[in-house]
Amino acid sequence: MKNLDVPIESFNISDLKIGDVVTLSGNVLTARDQAHKKILEEGSPYDLKGAAIFHAGPIIKNTGSKNDPDYKMIAIGPTTSMRMNPYQSDVIDMGVKIVIGKGGMDESVKEALIKNNAVYLVATGGCAALYVDAIKDIESVEWLDLGIPEAIWNLKVESFGPLIVAMDSHGNSLFK
């Protein structure tokens, strides 16, 4: 198992092969289809260079007030990545090095992973409680107007995983 620091700055993503198991430490951004669409329309509120994007709709509780929120992560699991196929290649082109989700992604994403030396990792469904234990802090949130599941959550994580390399930067895929 390899632990990768995100954003990816010095690690050579091309060293990862399908079937490798990794964990992530650093920052992970959640983004589903509406957030991907808005990133392409308006630009990202976060620097995507070396970023990890998790296709997830977290369950989050505000234990503070509307004017002074205090967000607590209850659960976070992967959502079906194929919904992001129309947007994902262009978002990867913006500097993303790691995409995390469940299920496969299409040929356009495979080509974007090769072109940008990036990978697609699968998170195991049913591990929402395990994954939430690796989240050390919710650093910020953007686009709450999209709703809690669709907003972009900037999460500080430590040993987030296990995650399996399902599509590598060489064009290999566990789904083929």
How would you summarize the topology of this molecule?
Elements: E1 2-6, E2 21-30, H1 33-42, E3 52-54, E4 59-62, E5 71-75, H2 85-92, E6 98-101, H3 107-116, E7 119-123, H4 128-133, E8 135-142, E9 152-167
Parallel strand pairs: 1-2, 2-3, 3-6, 6-7
Antiparallel strand pairs: 2-9, 4-5, 7-9, 8-9
Give the quaternary arrangement of the chains. Answer: single chain
Per DSSP E runs of 2 or more residues, the count of β-strands stands at 9
Catalogue the unreliable spans.
Answer: none
- The SS-based structural class is alpha/beta
How large is the share of residues in beta strands?
Answer: 25-35%
Termini separation (Å)?
A: 23 Å
What portion of residues is helical? Answer: 10-25%
What kind of sheet is the major sheet? 5 strands, mixed, barrel
Radius of gyration over C-alpha positions, nearest whole angstrom: 15 Å
Counted by DSSP, the helix tally is 4
Order of helices and strands: EEHEEEHEHEHEE
Spatial ordering of strands, largest sheet:
2-3-6-7-9
Mean pLDDT across the residues is: 95
Principal-axes shape call = globular
